[in-house]
Amino acid sequence: MTLGPTRPTVYDGRHDVKEGAVGRLIDPEEASLEERRIGALPIVNPFMERLGLKDLLDSYVVGDPRASLPPSASLLVLVQSLVIERAPVYKIAEWVAPRPEALLGLAPGEVAALNDDRAGRALDALFRADRAPMLTALMTKAIKVFAICMDELHNDATTLHMQGEYSSSVGDSPRAPQVRFGHAKERPDLAQLIYLLTVSFDGYVPITYRLCDGNTS
User: Hey, CA dihedral for 196, 201, 205, 207, is it positive or negative?
Assistant: First the structure.
């Protein structure tokens, strides 16, 4: 390989002149380096936007109007975390700290307002919401946007094992599934919940689910 002649670099103390381009020299003492974690956010976010997830959550999940962040902001970050790294809720503040606010759907300064307490309140608001029509709207949008074939569906059930005392597991909601001893496949000594999931054969996309009492047969 033959290298042709190149123009010399000329320094005048302020500028670097090379091949007709002018660029200011960087003073190392004035420069700073900021490290931010991007990860898969640029890949995950377009899918969430195409599904209209933010507008859907804003429509169904009601929060305190005095709060500095709506529940949808916390819930969207939790979805991002679940898809990318599955950080536990109590570490959500650590998870968001090194990431750009814009990619998290947050305005400048809002990262500081996101913590596990706020995330917990957002999850409580999601539980109180009318989730059945919300999930129906979400799945019909996904089927339409991504052209999912619904000719064949697959259904399966699994058990979620629990440890501890669950004499009253419904709290203040009669709609909550109850932890009960049932026909466990692996740990008959533990109480459980039953999780039923239906997916499409086309891409194995979750279509619907049902969480049932642990003694459901």
Answer: negative
